[in-house]
Amino acid sequence: MGGTNPSLVEALSCRNTILSLDVPFTREVAEDSAIYFKKDADDLKNRIEALENKTDRGPNEEAYEIYQKKYSAEKTINAFIEFVNCIAKQEVK
Prior knowledge:
single chain; mainly alpha; 62% helix; 5 helices; elongated; two-stranded parallel ribbon
């Protein structure tokens, strides 16, 4: 099973540096705003060490832009309202 991971969406909204398992579900959510690692301890270790050595880490603005575009509360509420209205129209017919 897979889908949108709520904790990943939360990380996007907080402008966090994201280190994520390289699977289609997380790539779909975080797009290019995350640092991806393979399901391999050495790859994960290398990614963590690279992050530790990086001195210019700031807020992850790319992640926040993805959050705003796809997952913000306003976006989610509007999608839900649209979904309910679509169901209501089908029941009226």
